[in-house]
Amino acid sequence: MGYKLLRRERLKRPGHKTLYTESEQETERLGERLARGLKKGSVVALSGELGAGKTTLVRGMARGLAIEGYVKSPSFTIVHIYSGGRLPLYHIDLYRIAPEELNTFELEEYVWSEGVCVIEWAEKIRHILPEDTIYINITHEGENRRKIEMEGFER
Amino acid sequence: MVLLGIETSCDDTSAALVRNGKEVLSCVIASQDTLHAEYGGVVPELASRRHTESIVPVVEKALKGASVELEDIDGVGVTMGPGLPGSLLVGIAFAKAVAYATGKPLVAANHLKAHVHAVFLDGDDKETPAFPFVALVVSGGHTSLFLVRDHIEFQPLGHTRDDAAGEAFDKVAKLLGLGYPGGVLIDRLARRGNPGAVEFKRPYIAKDNLEFSFSGLKTAVLNHLKRHGTPNTEDELMDICASFQEAVVDVLTQKILWATEKTDVRGVVVCGGVACNLRLRERLKEVERERDIKTYIPEPRYCSDNGAMVAAYAYHLLRENMLANMDVTAISTIE
Questions:
Q1: Does one domain contain both B107 and B139?
Q2: How would you write B5-74 as a 3-class SS string?
Q3: Which of A119, B143, B199, B221 has its CA 20 to 30 A from that of B107?
């Protein structure tokens, strides 16, 4: 695993850290590593612009949860459910959803589930997320370089 | 045999009455397109509540349009997936209720196989493909290649590993600050652009590989925009649209050709929303001329999600007595 490639800087806020990845593969590996800290009921809120690598990170998490097969973008279908791994994974993407009229009823079913719920464009529903939600923001820093800021990981 | 087909897998609520899997008696689609335009391509809420509101009037309108009473249908077909579970369940619950109340058979249809059956629906071009053929289902939510042996037996050849082609169109349109619907706008702008202006790397994965990957292409457009800034002129914008579109069309066309070579099949069906793309249609015509291949594309109105394609596929399932039980439920991914 390429940890040594990751430059780590700890910020003052507890549970907050910033990492950098230098390739898509590295972003995926980071996701895989983060999956180890996920447990029943974990909620991960992802944000970052189009093409930043949110789905790539989720792909790594799925791998880390021992889920086989491809993790596709759920932008159109909104929810993809993966079972067969260490925990069920609910991969949700709110890209196409307008926040102001969002009916969160169906989403809460996943957020309060027995599995791991990973939500892309989660800033749209921050108000329904549990207190112990893990927040991850990805920023495009260059062709392949991404800044990954995390908050709420128990480590 | 007249079947009622119900489709609620994504945003649109649709019901249709189709005779013998080909003659469309009526097809009603409650589209969220006007809402989409208003919201710049987004769904104002999870679609299931809207499906719940629309399903009864949509079915009523379809029955009326076909001058058919519910008691007179020979069965009801419904999309069981893949799609958004909450949305699918609205159609499934409704179809079950119709089947239970009328005592007619219930048929559960795979959404992708239903898309392919749109090619058998009546249109101006009555010619339909002979089995076996290669089918590409290409839309906002899906990009999948199949070897279609008969109406029911589909052998998967490859799917997208990440983003669907239609999704790539939509997201690139968003990156370029275009409105909705993204695919149509790119198609239109690309017509006056130079497809060779920007050399976007074609995501072929590997030679003869029949899977797709469009996520990297979206990131390539993002990188181009970060490097060169957002296009200042209309010409520049049209060039980027044309270059991006050409990359997608190149990959789709190449994979279709590889699929026909691999399976030694001459007929090709291209269906789903992206099948409306003009450049793709143009290229398919070129391929037909250059190679000994015949391509078939459903009528544009049956390319996007609709109940008629569901009824068409359900007809064949019903003929094979492949019925669904009352405990059938939504499947979010089927592969």
A1: no
A2: EEECCCCCEEEEEEECCCEEEEEEEECCHHHHHHCCCCECCCCHHHHHHHHHHHHHHHHHHHCCCHHHCC
A3: B143
* Each residue's pLDDT tens digit, B137-183: 999 999 999 999 999 999 999 999 999 999 999 999 999 999 878 99
Q: What domain range is B176 assigned to? A: 129-298
Nearest CB to A72 within list B84, B161, B175: B161
Longest dimension (CA), chain B: 63
- Which percentage of chain B shows pLDDT scores above 70? 93
> Looking at the structure, do residues B103 and B31 belong to the same domain, yes or no?
yes
- Nearest residue of A to residue B331, measured between CA atoms: A81
pLDDT at B37 over 70: no
Closest partner residue to B332 (CB to CB) among A80, A100, A106 is A80
Q: ipTM of this predicted complex?
A: 0.83
Best residue of A67, A68, A70, A77 to probe chain B, by most B CBs closer than 10 Å = A77
CATH number at residue B40: 3.30.420.40
Name chain B contacts of A146, Cβ cutoff 8 Å: none
The answer on B35 and B170 residing in a single domain is no
Contact B46 A106 (CB under 8 A): yes
Q: What is the CA radius of gyration of chain A?
A: 15
Nearest chain B Cα distance for residue A98, angstroms: 5
- The pLDDT value recorded for residue A5 is 37
Pair of tokens at residue B75: 């069965």
Q: What pLDDT is attached to residue B179?
A: 81
Domains of chain A: 12-150 (3.40.50.300)
B222 and B135 together in one domain: yes
The model scores a pTM over 0.80? yes
Interface of A with B (CB under 8 A): 24, 49-51, 53, 55-56, 59, 69-73, 75-81, 95-98, 100-103, 105-107, 140, 143
Query: Based on the domain organization, do B276 and B151 belong to the same domain?
Result: yes
Q: Is B278 domain-assigned? A: yes
